[in-house]
C-alpha cells in the first residue's frame, strides 16, 4: 500500500470525492441546466429576430454544440451518481465544504443513543438539533443522553471575550449575549426533558471559551467554527480523534458546574409558550437582575429558528 493510500484512510485526499458533495452537486446541476436552457433558447432565437442567414446559422450551430455538450456532461455525471454513488468507506477524517456543513450536522442526531455539544451560544443546537433529538426519541422510544457544555457567562472575562469574538465576525456587539443564550439553552433543555422521559439532558458551564464547536454522536463528530465561509472537519466514530475529543469534553465536564434544570417545573410549558414565569429562569444560577432585564430577548431566543447554517 502506498503512502497516499495509507493517508487516505485517515484524511480525504481524493479530489474526485468532491463529486460526492451535495453542495457541489447542486451547483453543478444548476449551472449546466441553466447553460443548456440558455443554449436551447439561443438556438431558436434567430426565428424571432431580424438576423441575416449567416449570423443565424452561426448562432444555431454554436448553441446546438453547447447544448449537446452540456447534455452529455449531465448524463455522464448522472450515470456516475446512479451507478457509482458515494464512497461508503469514508475516511476517518474528512474535510466538509461550508455549503455541506448543515447537511452533515443534520445526520448526527439520527439513530443515536447520545449527543454531546461543546459550543458557545448553542443557537443551532436549540433551533435544529434539540428538536430532532426530541422527535427521534419519541418516535423510536429510545433513551437519548444529551450533554451540553458551554462557557460560563458568569465569568466576566469569558463574556467579554465572546463579545469580542462575535464583533470580529462582523456581528453587532451585544451586551450579555453569552448570558442570554445560556439561559435560553437551559430553558429549552428543561422544557424538552420535562416533556419527554426518553430525553435526558444535562447542561454544564465551563471556565473555557472554545474557538470551535464540537458536535458528537454515534454517527461521528463535527468540528466547526462560527465563520460560515470556513470548512469543517468530520471524524468517523472509529477515528482516534473522535475518542480524543470525547475524552477532552468529558474531562472538561468533570470540572464544570452543572445547571439545575429542575425539569419537573417545566412540564406544562412548550418552547413557544408565552406564559412562562420568569421565576423559573432564576433556578439556573444566573444573575436575577440581568435575567429580568433581558427577559423578552431570552424568550425570543428560545423559540428562534434562525441560525448561521440556513
Give a short summary of the structure.
The chain is 47% helix and 13% strand. It is α+β, with helices and mostly antiparallel strands and 310 residues long.
Instruction: State the CATH architecture of the largest domain.
Output: 2-Layer Sandwich
CATH C-level class of the largest domain is Alpha Beta
Helix content: 40-55%
- Name the overall outline: elongated
| CATH topology descriptor of the largest domain | Endonuclease, Chain A
The figure for the number of domains is 2
Distance between the termini: 41 Å
Task: Describe this structure as you would to a colleague.
- This protein is an alpha+beta fold.
- The chain folds into two domains: 3-89; 95-303, Endonuclease Chain A (Endonuclease, Chain A), CATH 3.30.870.10.
- The protein is built from ten helices and eight strands.
- The protein has helices at 3-8, 22-44, 53-84, 101-107, 123-140, 156-168, 177-194, 240-254, 288-293, 295-303, and strands at residues 93-96, 114-118, 144-151, 199-206, 213-217, 220-224, 232-235, 257-258.
- Strands 1-7-6-5-2-3-4-8 form an eight-stranded mixed β-sheet, with helices on both faces.
- Helix 2 (22-44) runs antiparallel to helix 3 (53-84) and helix 7 (177-194) crosses helix 10 (295-303).
- The longest helix is centred in the first third of the chain and has 32 residues, at 53-84.
- The radius of gyration is 25 Å and the shape is elongated.
- The protein starts with a helix and ends in a 7-residue tail after the last helix.
Amino acid at each position: 500500500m502506498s503512502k497516499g493510500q495509507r493517508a487516505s484512510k485517515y484524511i480525504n485526499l481524493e479530489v474526485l470525492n468532491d463529486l460526492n458533495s451535495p453542495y457541489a452537486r447542486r451547483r453543478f446541476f444548476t449551472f449546466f441546466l441553466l447553460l443548456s436552457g440558455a443554449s436551447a433558447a439561443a438556438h431558436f432565437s434567430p426565428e424571432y429576430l431580424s438576423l441575416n442567414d449567416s449570423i443565424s446559422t452561426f448562432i444555431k450551430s454554436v448553441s446546438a454544440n453547447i447544448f449537446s455538450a452540456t447534455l452529455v456532461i449531465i448524463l455522464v455525471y448522472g450515470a456516475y451518481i446512479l451507478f457509482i454513488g458515494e464512497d461508503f468507506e469514508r475516511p476517518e477524517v474528512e474535510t466538509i465544504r461550508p455549503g455541506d456543513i448543515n447537511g452533515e450536522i443534520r445526520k448526527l442526531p439520527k439513530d443515536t443513543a447520545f449527543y454531546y455539544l461543546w459550543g458557545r451560544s448553542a443557537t443551532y443546537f436549540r433551533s435544529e438539533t434539540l428538536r430532532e433529538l426530541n422527535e427521534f426519541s419519541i418516535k423510536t422510544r429510545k433513551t437519548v443522553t444529551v450533554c451540553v457544555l458551554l462557557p460560563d457567562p458568569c465569568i466576566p472575562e469569558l463574556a467579554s471575550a465572546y463579545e469580542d469574538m462575535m464583533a470580529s465576525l462582523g456581528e453587532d456587539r451585544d451586551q450579555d449575549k453569552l448570558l442570554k443564550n445560556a439561559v435560553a439553552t437551559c430553558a429549552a433543555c428543561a422544557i424538552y426533558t420535562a416533556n419527554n422521559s426518553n430525553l435526558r439532558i444535562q447542561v454544564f458551564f465551563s471556565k473555557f471559551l472554545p474557538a470551535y464547536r464540537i458536535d458528537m454522536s454515534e454517527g461521528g463528530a463535527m468540528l466547526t467554527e462560527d465563520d460560515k465561509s470556513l470548512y469543517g472537519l468530520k471524524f468517523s466514530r472509529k477515528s482516534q480523534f473522535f475518542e480524543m475529543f470525547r475524552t477532552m469534553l468529558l474531562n472538561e465536564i468533570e470540572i464544570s458546574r452543572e445547571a439545575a434544570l429542575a425539569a419537573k417545573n417545566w412540564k406544562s410549558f412548550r418552547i413557544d409558550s408565552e406564559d412562562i414565569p420568569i421565576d423559573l429562569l432564576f433556578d439556573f444560577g444566573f444573575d436575577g437582575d440581568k435575567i429580568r432585564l433581558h427577559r423578552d430577548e431570552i424568550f425570543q431566543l428560545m423559540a428562534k429558528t434562525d441560525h448561521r447554517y440556513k
